[in-house]
């Protein structure tokens, strides 16, 4: 209501919802794509087993053929179960309770863009901060000092980054934002 910015905030909100919906749709499509590939692989295995059992029918017992075919058919369900487990655990990776233990930060060939069509602001940073050391980040305006901290707190879209940021060996892009930001703190440029 302040400054009559309702429409601006509504448009921003709708853009964010659309981006989230696109990401969720893509995640669902990739899961289905992977599931179809697993089904195709198990069907091919079942087909090859059936062909071999016909070709080698005089060398194999009927019970062995039946057992091999039943295992191939059960393999489809096992593949689907493994895919579901992988999806479940990838979305719920939680760092260890006492993480971080040392406080080692590593940037490995890290690149950051504010938007996909723009030039990188951080261009292949390789940096290691050894535990219990104090460092200063110094540079002229636009050198990327604030961008390093934006990357560390994951304030940018993952699609605009390359490389890894590790804290005690754990990639910050594999854990939830809540877990990451609960262990970090920052003193801002400007105070209110």
UniProtKB/TrEMBL annotation:
Keyword Methyltransferase tagged: no
Ranges annotated as spanning the membrane: 34-56, 63-82
Keyword Amino-acid biosynthesis set for record: no
InterPro entries: ABC1_TM_dom (IPR011527), ABC1_TM_sf (IPR036640), ABC_transporter-like_ATP-bd (IPR003439), ABC_transporter_C-like (IPR050173), P-loop_NTPase (IPR027417)
Residue stretches making up the ABC transmembrane type-1 domain: 1-91
Keywords annotated in UniProt: ATP-binding, Membrane, Nucleotide-binding, Transmembrane, Transmembrane helix, Transport
GO MF term list: ABC-type transporter activity; ATP binding; ATP hydrolysis activity
Source superkingdom: Eukaryota
Pfam families associated with the record: ABC_tran (PF00005)
Protein name: ABC transmembrane type-1 domain-containing protein
């Amino acid at each position: 209501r302040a400054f009559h910015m309702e429409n601006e905030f509504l448009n921003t909100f709708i853009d964010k919802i659309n981006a989230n919906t696109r990401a969720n749709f893509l995640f669902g499509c990739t899961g289905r794509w992977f599931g179809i590939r697993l089904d195709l692989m198990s069907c091919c295995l079942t087909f090859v087993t059936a062909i071999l059992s016909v070709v080698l029918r005089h060398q194999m017992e009927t019970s062995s053929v039946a057992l091999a075919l039943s295992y191939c058919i059960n393999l489809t369900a096992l593949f689907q179960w493994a895919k579901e487990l992988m999806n479940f655990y990838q979305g719920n990776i939680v760092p260890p309770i006492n993480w971080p233990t040392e406080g080692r930060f590593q940037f490995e060939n890290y690149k950051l863009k504010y938007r996909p069509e723009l030039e990188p602001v951080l261009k292949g940073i390789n940096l290691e901060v050894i535990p219990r050391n104090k460092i200063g980040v110094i540079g002229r305006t636009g050198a990327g000092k604030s961008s390093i901290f934006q990357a560390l707190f994951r304030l940018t879209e993952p699609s605009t980054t390359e490389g890894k940021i590790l804290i005690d060996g754990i990639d910050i892009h594999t854990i939830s934002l809540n877990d990451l930001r609960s262990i970090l703190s920052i003193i801002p440029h400007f105070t209110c």
